[in-house]
Amino acid sequence: MIDGIMNQLKQQVGGELQQKENVSGAELNGIFEVVKEQATGKIGENLLDQGLDGVMSLFSKNDNNKQADSLQASITGGIVDSLQKKLGFSGAKATGIVAIIMPYLLRLLTEKNSETPDDDPSPIKDILGGSLGSIGDKLGGLF
To answer: Comparing C-alpha atoms, which of 66, 2, 7, 50 is closest to residue 58?
Structure first.
């Protein structure tokens, strides 16, 4: 499911990234691979360390709790860092890319999570399930 969300995200912001951040069409795939890797990794780490509250808060239509704010900052920082290290973007360019991507990513994940009641984490499990590998196995007991 995360691949479908990444495809939607790419369709929604790919052109904007090319125009505003001078990203080439060839760089788009690398950008969205970094976004996928960092988002799923940071969410998985957060679930293992802090449980479900922050993740559910971040992907709800309610105001974020402190854990959700921390998780969002972690995802954002991880993407910026990886864009610099893996794709060689400057800090300013990586930050500009993330500023465009994050609102859309959060909205897409929130929309998916909102398809069920607020206390039902199954969409998060569906979104992240196949992309977490061994972390996914460890998370089995949380869902």
So the answer is: 66
Residues 6+ apart with CB under 8 A from 121: 52, 55, 56, 142, 143
* Domain parsing of the chain, residue ranges: 2-142
Longest dimension (CA), the chain: 44
Rg of the chain over all Cα atoms, to the nearest angstrom: 15
Predicted TM-score (pTM) of this structure: 0.86
Determine the residue type at 107.
Answer: R
What are the structure tokens assigned to 32, written together? 């969205």
In the numeric block, the tokens 């993407």 are attached to 79
Neighbour count for residue 87 (Cβ, 10 Å): 16
Inter-residue contact 124 to 44 (CB < 8 Å): no
Q: What is the pLDDT along the chain (143 residues), one digit of tens a residue?
A: 888 999 999 999 999 999 999 999 999 999 999 999 999 999 988 888 888 889 889 999 999 999 999 999 999 999 999 999 999 999 999 999 999 999 999 999 999 888 877 777 777 777 766 544 444 454 455 44
Distance CA 57, CA 37 (A): 21
